[in-house]
Amino acid sequence: GAGVSQSPSNKVTEKGKDVELRCDPISGHTALYWYRQSLGQGLEFLIYFQGNSAPDKSGLPSDRFSAERTGGSVSTLTIQRTQQEDSAVYLCASTWGGSYEQYFGPGTRLTVT
Amino acid sequence: GENVEQHPSTLSVQEGDSAVIKCTYSDSASNYFPWYKQELGKRPQLIIDIRSNVGEKKDQRIAVTLNKTAKHFSLHITETQPEDSAVYFCAASTEGANNLFFGTGTRLTVIP
After folding, report:
1. CB pair distance less than 8 Å for B100 and A50
2. Taking Cα atoms as reference points, which of A93, A83, A74, A90 lies closest to residue A33?
3. How many other CB atoms are found less than 10 A from the CB of residue A54?
4. Which helix H or strand E contains B35, and what residues bound it?
5. Does the structure show a pLDDT above 80 at A98?
6. In Å, how far is A64's CA from the nearest CA of chain B?
7. What's the DSSP call for residue A73?
8. Rounded mean pLDDT of B91-104?
């Protein structure tokens, strides 16, 4: 079946602009995660959605970052007033409630100039 | 919170040799330890995981060992092949917790 998809695959934006990154999880997966991967670094947890529960936003680095998940499916990560240090690959992952294996999307490479 | 450290950051081995990657964690409540493989330009994929009720798990050429007392776990790849070349990430989590804490990754290069 279809895996996790993300769009766009690449995004170049000017410093100060807002960006929206989209994640389509695997159908039926109730949990959705956003991670950030800076060059040569590990995966940094950003936010987690599980069903209709309030999201765990503990990993968001600043109030410029926000995310929502509509209808328990598609999620959008928004970065306002982008900064150069926001440049990274943003990965989305999903899983179903009874599993801990996270299925990752291909990521969105964000470059802030 | 949990802190996962991973070593080495880079590792080169000759084809056919074994490779070992080590991770330590800080939170004694962590009880789930997956390993992900990320090939160049691709997404991370789970290759093996272990829970704290076992000390070792093996899947063909890949094995993971866990020492809960010392709070460290290791990935062992035997008879390495060029297609094993990738970045490997360890992670730790508490079952029921919301997220995985990842190590910084090990870039493995298998030299033909």
Report:
1. no
2. A93
3. 7
4. strand B32-38
5. no
6. 21
7. S
8. 81
d(C-alpha A17, C-alpha A8), whole Å = 16
Q: From CA B32, how far away is CA A106, in angstroms rounded? A: 24
| Residues of A at the B interface, defined by Cβ within 8 angstroms | 4, 33, 35, 40-45, 48, 50, 56, 58-59, 91, 100-102, 104-107
The answer to whether residue A66 scores a pLDDT higher than 90 is yes
DSSP assignment of A20-65, as one string? EEEEEPPTT--EEEEEEE-TT--EEEEEEEETTSPPB-TT--STTE
> Residue A10 has which token pair?
């690449």
For residue B97, pLDDT beyond 70: no
Is 60 exceeded by the pLDDT of residue A1?
Answer: no
| pLDDT single digits (tens) B44-85 | 999 999 988 889 999 999 999 999 999 999 999 999 999 999
Q: Would you say A93 and A5 are in contact if contact means Cβ atoms under 8 Å apart?
A: no
